[in-house]
Amino acid sequence: MDALHKAIQKIHSDPENPTSSVLCSLIKSLDDGHQFDIHQLYQLNYGDFGLALEVVKQWRLDSFRYERGQATKLATEPAGKFEFPAWANTPARPS
After folding, report:
1. What distance in Å separates the CA atoms of residue 41 and residue 66, rounded to the nearest whole number?
2. pLDDT, tens digit, for every residue of 9-48?
3. What angle do CA 46, 47, 52 make, to 5 degrees?
């Protein structure tokens, strides 16, 4: 599983967690081109900080394969209501 999908899975597993909020904000920022306060990353533990950096690296390399707005939708929709599209190469989640 790639970094973006790991981050999305982490967000869906505990949406109220501050880590989820930071990761969601990062993904939305990358997806829509708006600014992201990089100081938010310092709120993360070392493992999640590394995951955030991997998301940024992956986005830099693979952003062409994501339809604008799709990553935000994946990160913000409740896990049971959204099926991953075919390009995500991830099985659909049960409702």
Report:
1. 23
2. 999 899 999 999 999 999 989 888 889 999 999 999 999 9
3. 95
